[in-house]
Design goal:
This protein has 549 residues and is mainly beta. Helix content is 1%, strand content 47%. The strands form ten sheets. Strands 27, 29, 30, 32, 38, 39, 40 and 42 form an eight-stranded antiparallel sheet that branches. Strands 31, 33, 34, 35, 36, 37 and 41 form a seven-stranded antiparallel sheet that branches.
Length: 549
Amino acid sequence: MSFDGAGQDRAMMITNPVLPGFDPDPSIIRVGDTYYLATSTFEWFPGVRIHASQDLVHWNLVTNVLDDTRLLDMKGNPASGGIWAPDLSYADGKFWLVYTDVKVAEGAFKDMTNYVTTASQITGPWSDPVRLNGIGFDASIFHDDDGRKYLVQQTWDHREYHHQFDGITLTELDPFTLTPDRKTQRTIYAGTERGLVEGPHLYKIDGWYYLFVAEGGTVWEHQESVARSRSLDALSFETMPGNPFITNVDTPDFPLQKQGHGALVATPGGQWYYASLVARPWRHEHEDADAPRGWCTLGRETSIQQVEWDADGWPRVVGGRAGLLTVPAPDDAIMTDAPTDHSQHDEFAAPTLSLEWNTLRVPFTAAMGTVGGGRLELAGQGSLANRHELSLVARRWQAFDFDAETAVKFEPETYQAMAGLTNYYNDTHWSWVFVTWDERRGRVIEVAENDRGQYRSCLRDEAILVPDGVELVHLRTRVRTSSYTYDYSFDGRTWQSTGVELDAKVLSDDYVLQGYGGFFTGAFVGLAAVDLSGYREVATFDHFDYREL
């Protein structure tokens, strides 16, 4: 319970999604009276975000686990490769994190390596990772009550004449070295007719082993299925009657879509909750309700649903398998202090980037620039299509409507040098407003978009001339659900439109999916510097402001 100003208690409610913006594939645990949520980060660095709460309602980002190349190096990884579906657990007095680094995401192959790292505190330090195997992604560790440990994972079959999703595999781990014992490897569950079985989490409750798995692919047909067994023998798991456990495939008008791929947690008082990924689509006014079903520019987020157990010992989502927008918090919830929105103002005073900032594939180092003392300096490297050397720092879109702005000092000497403000999905889907050099006119402001890898300059001969004597160029984006614009100012007070309005759907999973299979992240807004000439011209940003409306 929480209390209002008059001292009267009122029930707290979980409002979904609890983690707005790109935070998918949640793995939830409770240690004492605190809940922890680990989520996927794909090609964004640092890898694996951890949020904490004591009431399941209010969440704080407390750490990014994979924060140096000792734990994770994704240089060159494809878009939507990298960290898939981490698994967080607690056993033997320490936290365990299993994670997959996917090096090939498209086509027949999913080249990957699964690792495990441990820490006595959630904020680390985390141990050197132990390499496990590469037979499949979405790996998790099950700590049985007899002290044995098992690796549970999706299994990938690259052969074109077999189904690629080859069931859920269980392998016993050596409890000391954590080496998988290949002799114990076996398929325990093949999935249902929905197919694409992945994302396994295994629990032992009242003598039953319960297996939660995602199926149907992480799109509109997505669902979570449940099976159980008295043993861990091969193919011994029985699917729950009335399966699936949760899905939105048959509720197209419900605000929450794509629910599934999640984990179960019990409260201290014995109540049960389930955290899963979720997406919230929007449509243009002219678009039909069924085609397309919508555009999820915030990516796949995290929802929490309450769970009850039926008379036969099967878990059921309270309110029906579509889930609910609002859910009662646990009876024993402890009010957690957390921001009411995710607005951010950064004047770059600290010598390190805050937890909300991300880079692509590799950490922020001197190769990209420096931060502190009231400025962020970015040294120009590769284009925003570059997977190896890129000077970009960005944060998630966490609201459908927001303004973001910055001011940049940049004196380019070539049109190959550019610096500014970007809205970014992946290396083939992005746009930005930037300062560059025009050999005929001098410093100018241009807007450009990369749509399915096709680059276009939006202003061209109408690029906006930066007056002589202007040191700081102020740049702004205004995102309004279905579209967004770019503005500029030369004094930080009087703003002018660039005249460019872009379709936000281009920065959504659903739009990217129409072109190819890497579609697992979400839209970001951030700061970037490019210098294709190789001379690394430096752009200096003196602040960044993200305001949710």
